[in-house]
Amino acid sequence: MESTAVRELPSATLKALVVDRIRGEIVSGRYKPGERLNESKLAREFKVSRIPVREALTKLHEQGLLMNHPRRGMFVNTLSEEDTQKINSVRIVLEAEALKLCRAKLTKERERHLDRLVVGMEQWERGSELDAAALDLDFHKAFWTYSDNNYLERTLSSLVPVLLAHHALDSIGHELVRWRLNHHRALLEVIQGTSKQTPEEAILVHLRIAYNSPERFSSLACTTIIGQRG
Amino acid sequence: MESTAVRELPSATLKALVVDRIRGEIVSGRYKPGERLNESKLAREFKVSRIPVREALTKLHEQGLLMNHPRRGMFVNTLSEEDTQKINSVRIVLEAEALKLCRAKLTKERERHLDRLVVGMEQWERGSELDAAALDLDFHKAFWTYSDNNYLERTLSSLVPVLLAHHALDSIGHELVRWRLNHHRALLEVIQGTSKQTPEEAILVHLRIAYNSPERFSSLACTTIIGQRG
DNA sequence: TCGTGTTATCTTGTATGCTTGATGCGGTGA
DNA sequence: TCACCGCATCAAGCATACAAGATAACACGA
Predict the structure, then answer these.
(1) Which of A53, A75, B80, B101 is the 20 to 30 Å CA partner of A7?
(2) What is the rounded distance in angstroms from the CA atom of residue A70 to the CA atom of residue A10?
(3) Are A92 and A205 in contact (CB under 8 A)?
(4) Where is average pLDDT lowest: A132-136, A200-204, B127-131?
(5) What is the C-alpha separation between B2 and B201, in angstroms, rounded?
(6) pLDDT by residue (tens digit) across B43-54?
(7) What pLDDT is recorded for position A2?
(8) Cβ of A28: how many Cβ atoms within 10 Å?
């Protein structure tokens, strides 16, 4: 257990370092869903006291990566199929909104930046799935930012990364990852206004590449029953 | 300074009590926007150690009620006009979605509950503005819950209460508060499907009662310029 | 008089030790 | 044999103590 102590790069605060470290362990799969995280044990492991660890755990809890069983401890959150669908259902609404706003506020510079990100993804070859997830997230975060509404951005940032933390993209296979990465070109076309799809359609198609029924807990799943009012 | 110690009602954890207490002080306006909150001072005031206070502050920070200037302390967040508009712009999208879902998942029992809440608001007479805000929030939280998507509910819960924490309803006058409370009947009719308004229209009208241009940073503000695609 | 460097002091960040509540095991009785 | 009660054990919650960064005031020099 010669786990590198956390003090290496002297950064702002130990808490932040521990947060990054633990998140990394979860995302990379070393801490598995359902596993219990012991404060003292982590403190010994990271060579810090329990306080920064404790605060890091509560932060990750707020972000939804951990479950808290009071006076019992923190557990790595296990995301059920329904949870994933519910998150994606909210995501559809918010990302569609972000696409519209990004389209309305687009500048040449922003367009170039988004294009660079898309090209980067199209050039992805046989890299690791983790890299793919990172590239994916980079693009999404970029157009969230370009919505010019930082609350929209913040909301999406607190919602979406959890999905990627559970290896959602691992199991869908290499060619699907490839397809998904390429599909960001379609999103960019929506932003540029050169697409025939509505933002809702585009983001729905985009999510369907990696998930089953991502719209299941959204109003899109109800409109056929209820009528076209919504 | 005879501030009641916090140990009165023996609840789950001191941290939770301190969170509620501080949030109350902010909402009630005793801690003013921009004011600095001193850990030690609060600890003495509440007769607890700094740890629960510290953790409470970080929690309120995550919720957006406080700003954190690292190694400097926590400050009561000051919400600009733009911030309010940005939050409301996200809120429109999410609450419209919640209305649609609630409509699709409506049961007799839920309908009765929502109706009771509306009646309660219609009977509000010359109570304090704080009570009005509480009633308001109760109704909204109810139909968030009835969307049957707890992630949608959580997202709204992390976004909306901040608005009410800054006396947004104080300055709009008694008759406007009355009007706003009564307008929840319109939202209920949307949920019941007996309204001629779309959910988006209804929630937009609803927010316009208390706020200026709540849609300013949403796609609704862009459609007239960009076209009817969105 | 103004600007800069130094220091005093305050406050957050971190460490360690104690308390309390929860869990699980073993013993006892039916 | 099974159910229930008590006790040992352990980890989270909390308190106290220490360290380090930041601010602001003051003094000194230009």
Answers:
(1) A75
(2) 33
(3) no
(4) B127-131
(5) 49
(6) 999 999 999 999
(7) 33
(8) 11
Determine the Cα–Cα distance for residues A205 and A200; give it in Å rounded to an integer. Answer: 9
Interface of A with B in 78-107 (CB under 8 A): 83, 86-87, 89-90, 93-94, 97, 100-101, 103-104
Residue A94 neighbours by CB under 8 Å, 6+ apart: A152, A155, A156, A159, B90, B93, B94
Cβ atoms within 10 Å, residue A130: 15
Yes or no, beta carbons of B83 and A226 under 8 Å apart: no
* Angstrom distance (rounded) from CA B155 to CA A7: 35
Q: For the segment B74-120, what is each residue's pLDDT rounded down to a tens digit?
A: 999 888 899 999 999 999 999 999 999 999 999 999 999 999 999 99
Those nucleotides of strand C lying less than 7 Å from any protein Cβ are 11-17, 21-23
Distance CA A114, CA A109 (A): 9
Of A91-100, A164-173, A203-212, B133-142, the least confident: A164-173
Model pLDDT, residue A172:
63
Per-residue tokens: A119: 């090209």
What's the CA A137/C1' C19 distance, rounded, in angstroms?
A: 45
Distance between CA atoms of B198 and A229, rounded to whole angstroms? Answer: 6
Residue of A nearest to B57 (CA): A55
Whose tokens are 């998150």? That residue is: A87
Q: Which two tokens stand for residue A60?
A: 């990750």
Contact A95, A153 (CB under 8 A): no
Q: Which two tokens mark B192?
A: 């019941």
Q: What is the mean pLDDT of chain B?
A: 86
The rounded distance, in Å, linking the Cα atoms of A214 and A212 is: 6
Number of H helices, E strands in chain B: 12, 3
Q: Enter the tokens of residue A111.
A: 């367009």
The Cα–Cα gap between A31 and A44 comes to: 16
Q: Where are the extended beta strands (E) located within chain B? A: 36-37, 66-69, 73-76
Please name the residue whose C-alpha is nearest to the C1' of nucleotide D12.
A71
Position of tokens 């995302």? A27
Put simply, the answer to whether B222 touches A100 (Cβ < 8 Å) is yes
- Could you tell me the two tokens for A131? 């890299």
